[in-house]
Write a structure and sequence with these properties.
- The protein is built from 18 helices and five strands.
- By secondary structure, it is of the alpha/beta class.
- Strand 2, helix 6 and strand 3 form a beta-alpha-beta unit.
- Helix 1 crosses helix 16.
Amino acid sequence: PGDEQMERRIRRLVRWNAAVMVTRANQRHPGLGGHISTYASSASLYEVGFNHFFRGKDSPGGLGDAIYFQGHGAPGIYARAFLEGRLSEDQLDRFRMESKGGGLSSYPHPRLMPEFWEYPTVSMGLGPMNAIYQARFLKYLENRGIADTSQARVWCFMGDGESDEPESLGALSLAAREGLDNLVFVVNCNLQRLDGPVRGNGQIVQELEARFRGAGWNVIKVLTGGDWDELLARDVDGLLVRRMEETLDGDWQRYSTESGAVIRDEFFGADPRLRQIVDHLSDADLERLRMGGHDYRKLDRAYWFATQQPTGEPTAILARTVKGWTLGEGFEARNVTHQMKSLGLEELRVFRDRLELPISDDALETAPYHHPGSDSEEIRYLLEHRAALGGPLPDRRAHPVELELPEADLYGEFRKGTGPKVPASTTMVFVRLLRALLKDCLLY
């Protein structure tokens, strides 16, 4: 629905600044940590939302959407806020140094950045579970006429490796049972966890689809980019679909780094009829076949179906991506990519060239941030789209309410204790205390 070329340029700016922020921090303080490859794989997942779907606090209803960001993707969210003018270079240079004042926390947490982050999402698995409870509470308020939450939606971004945490999928059945069609999970299926493939000998996307569908969710899979569409149209015998279904995650990951010749021989060479489907393509064309999670149009349609179709069900979008996408062959789909914290000079040069950014070779020595200027087409476009959607995100606005403390006699019965003839459990006393406080609150 937008200017695709403009949004690609914005996405490249965010990618660059996210990677450079982590690189600069680790150059100054080796071992500081941070994550480069997670956001690199999920940039398109977020940018589709930021440009067209995520509602801010100034949208109709005054609530906006609740976004639970994947913790390891925080550098990309900081990099976007930098382009918006919400964060400075000085703040970016204090990444993971929040104790120095004005620094940026490692992961999303409102206690550390009380005007920025709304919800904590790390440790792994807590974001997904809390997102379900948040969506349930919004429905509670709506169904009982307490507040109009009909326009508010909860988005939860998580990784496929994170799905193995017990909390991640532990409340799925509750979401379906309560009809939480205001809830969307976006699972970044980059096929990797901390130190290797998530399911090297299986397909995590298919496994997750079974889990979500079995729990009563609507599931949308975004597996291949638009480059595959012509090939799928030629697949009159279903050979290509069958080949995709039998290809293991370990091989999908490997094909992301292989040459077109290897892809032709190993993936398409399993059957002469299958190989014939790609006879008209060069090896370079085969290398450019993308995963669906990097295709802006496919993602836009997936988000649209998740938000526009009243299914009465929560929706899970399973988007297959490449971890470390665009960072170069030293990062892309490598088993160690999650632990890599810094780009070297040559890697920065390759990264810059891929993103087509106007940064000189000499400037690369300092791993510079790049901002095209507040009057540039990119920044105007970015800010206009956020304004139309209700303002920037994340954005925490606290509205404290002062309450009068209960009178002292409310606690009178609890000070008396319990006599030998009237034993009371801790639970019983606690419930009675809550009841007394609630009655006082309602009277107030």
